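User: Could you check the structure of this?
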Amino acid sequence: MNNTNALTEIMAGYASRRAKAEQDAIKRAREAGLKAPVYAKALLLEREALVRYGKAVLEAPDNADELKAALERERAALILEREAALKAAGIDPASLLPKYECEHCRDTGYCGDPIKRPCGCMAQRLMEAALVGTHLDERVSFEKFNLSLFSGDLMNGRAESQRAYMEKVKRAGERYCERFPDNPKPNVLFYGMPGLGKSFMLGCIVRRLIERGHNAILITAYALQDIVLRERIQNQNTLALAPYINVDLLAIDDLGGEPRINNVSSESFFSLINERTRANRATLVATNIASSELQDRYGDSVASRLLDVNTTSIFWLRGRDLRQG
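Assistant: Sure, the predicted structure tokens are below.
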């Protein structure tokens, strides 16, 4: 499910829950009216007073302030009458209010006045939708990491084999998961040519962290850019990126594999990486492109964050392409 569809479904869910809460409240108010006829009568009189006020203001707009004050006095007296009737019938007035799932946003998804911002419950639902979208192949895990697939011959320019190096990378990935979220370096960068196990390593780490109860999302750079493009069209950039900014660990696969579209890549990835860096949230990246190309494609700001050895463990994978047998 893409982020646009997820948002549509989430908003439909809010509307459904809000409507049910308000319909249930109306039902409870009707039942209360049967037990406390004075309460029902006071409600009717309040509605009639509101109608009269509306008509009076239309007929004499210059007297609006005076009419409003008279209305408020009448409503205050009716409210006291309602509460007294409910108390006499043993009914708690609070029990007649709509019971929203989220009292902060009243099941609208947004809080604030006059500027509306996504409620915390909205951010959580978007996060859950993004997590559901992290589909991992069941064959991808540390338990199924087959070191025998890697060559045991010494690599050119290195005093160790591809197999020995990948064993170190595997152990480093497992230690990272054991320490998470308290790793000295929260970020990890895997780079090298295709077919060396970069995507597999991302999947292993994400699976292990999810199994340990952490929120983790694995997404390709292409899919991430597609989300940004779709939401830019609908002018909802911040909301679209929220799950990816706030998740405990974000793993971005195949950075550089997405098309270059009028600086969208550099702008969107800078915003994402910058926000996650400021919040000290872990980001893992796998890419086929070298550091010089990272700078050229995404700019110095993104490259410096991805290549900062103070916050990022960097693994340069080399050797035989596993897909070539």
